[in-house]
Structures are given as C-alpha cells and as structure tokens.
Specification:
This protein has 305 residues and is α+β, with helices and mostly antiparallel strands. The chain has helices at residues 2-21, 24-40, 47-87, 92-125, 179-185, 192-219, 277-288, 291-300, and strands at 130-134, 139-148, 151-161, 167-171, 224-228, 234-240, 246-252, 263-268. The strands form two sheets. Strands 1-2-3-4 form a four-stranded antiparallel beta sheet. A four-stranded antiparallel beta sheet has the order 5-6-7-8, covered by helices on one side.
Length: 305
C-alpha cells in the first residue's frame, strides 16, 4: 500500500509540473502582440518570407499542442491503471480519503485535456490564422493581418462564440465590407476557413488600394485626386499633359478582391485624345499596374506633366 501511495504522489507531481510547463495560450497571446508591434514598426519582408515564418510558427504551435494531448492521454491510462490496482485493496475507506484530492486533480487535468483538443480543432479548421482564447474558453479571437508590397498594414480581429454554434460577436472590420453577407455566402458554420480566406482577401485588397492612394499623393503631387470613397472602389484623378490639356481619369474597382481596377475611362475636352493609341495604351497600363507606378511610367514617357 505504501508503494501504491508513493506511485500516486509521483504521478501527481509529474502532472503538476506538466501543467505548469504548459504555455500554449501565452505563446498565442505573444503572437498577437508581435503582430501589433509589426503594425507600429513595419518590416520590409517579402510575402514569401512572411509566409515561411508563419508556417514555421504554426507548425511549432501544432507540435506543441499535439505533444500535450499525448501527455494527457498517458495520464488517462495511468488513472485507469491506478483505479484497477486500488480496486482490491483491503483498506478502502482510508484509501478513499487519501486519493480524494488526487482524483480531483486528475479530473481537472482531463477537463483541460478536452479543452486543449477543442482549441486544436478550432486552430485546424481556421487554416492556421492567429487565434487567442477569450472569455475563459467560451470564445476565440481570430487575427487577420494585412500587407501590401511586403509592408504590414492594419490588423483586423474577429471574436467568435465557439459553442453551441460559431457566431461572430465582435469585430473591427470596416462597415462598408458586408460581413453578414460574406458569412452567409461563405457558410460560416460549414466552412469557416473559406469564410476567413474570402474576408482576408477582401481586407488585403482594400488596404492595398488605400496604400496605393497614399503613395499616389506622396509621389505625384501634380496629380489631383478629385474623388475617392471609403472603400477605395472608385478613384477620379485630374491629369495634365505637357501641352496643357486636362484629362479626368476614372478608375473603377468593382472586384473588391483585387488591388487593380476593372475599368478605366478618360474624359477630355479634346474627344480625340482618349481615343488615340497612346492613351489606350495608358488605359491598359492603369488596369495592369498599381496606379502610383502607372502614373510614374506615364510621367517618364511625357504623357502627363
């Protein structure tokens, strides 16, 4: 009996050390903190480098979670073995008093094991997006980072209820992005990863268009921005040619998943000018190249002043 109690004490000590070593959620919170730091101090990293870094971090996190689950499965087996050994003991009453606290700790560890399995499942179905536990396990916060040309821009967050069904409770997504329509069309309940991929694509495209507008104003002070909206889905520019002719250039971004316009129109008092081969080429250039870069090419070619 003394040997059995010593084995129980050793098992409980190992369990306590394992629980103290668990730093999974702290690591996830650290990932979100790093994302915020990157927002304040953007790093000039290529998209490929960033993807590789994210894959490496997520792989390490997955391995850590799976290792902890294996440990807790081993704990369950030990508990069953200990219960079987205690079944034939002669001093049952004394053993019950001794093992009461130990069984309670084992039940707590089993509950934590189930909780970690649920978090691992959620992490799997959202395709590796940064995730943080909220409200003591009742919800999760998904972080969506945006970037353009290797520069980190704004970070968006979605807080989701996990039980009984997935439901968006809070977010900082701009109101002009139809989040409700996306959740219905993207099947939030059946395909959360597809929903997040679509939302992330739209947010990155939006931040990309907004970044292009910012660079346009910085790099081309001679170009006047006549009109733009909050979604950056329409942009009207006033251009001047070296011959003092003025054109209005309208860029339409009807595909909200892209940074490039789907339509370009020039308006000028000289109606023949927009129909010339040179300006048709300029129209094609604007549809295939970010606006701030396209204007730089047009200025170099002496089409605009």
């Amino acid at each position: 009996m003394l040997v059995l109690q010593q084995e129980n004490n050793i098992s409980v000590t190992k369990l306590t050390d394992m629980e103290a070593a668990t730093g999974v959620l702290n690591h996830l919170i650290a990932l979100e903190t790093q994302a915020r730091i990157r927002q304040v101090q953007p790093r000039q990293r290529t998209p490929v480098e960033e993807l590789r870094a994210r894959v490496k971090a997520l792989t390490m996190e997955r391995d850590r979670l799976e290792a902890e689950i294996r440990v807790h499965k081993d704990i369950e087996k030990r508990k069953m073995r200990l219960n079987n050994q205690c079944a034939g003991a002669e001093e049952a009453e004394e053993e019950m008093e001794t093992e009461g606290g130990e069984n309670e700790e084992l039940l707590q560890l089993m509950a934590r094991h189930i909780h970690l399995k649920e978090l691992l499942y959620v992490h799997h179905i959202i395709g590796g997006y940064d995730i943080t536990e909220t409200r003591k396990g009742k919800g999760v916060c998904v972080t969506l980072s945006t970037a353009y040309e290797g520069v980190y821009l704004k970070t968006y967050n979605l807080e989701l209820d996990v039980k009984p069904t997935l439901r968006i409770t809070r977010h900082n997504v701009p109101p002009f992005i139809a989040l409700g329509e996306l959740s219905e069309r993207g099947s939030l309940q059946d395909d959360l990863r597809g929903f997040l991929d679509t939302l992330s694509t739209q947010l990155n495209a939006f931040e990309g268009r907004r970044q292009q507008l910012k660079l346009l104003k910085e790099l081309h002070p001679s170009v006047t921005v006549m009109e733009s909206n909050a979604l950056c889905s329409i942009l009207v520019l006033m251009l001047s040619t070296p011959k003092k002719k003025t054109l209005l250039c309208t860029l339409n971004y009807t595909d909200l998943k892209r940074c490039l316009p789907t339509g370009v129109r020039f308006d000028c008092e000289d109606e023949m000018l927009p129909e010339s081969p040179e300006w048709k080429n300029n129209s094609k250039l604007l549809m295939e190249t970010p606006v701030h870069k396209a204007l730089g090419t047009m200025k170099t070619s002496a089409y605009i002043a």
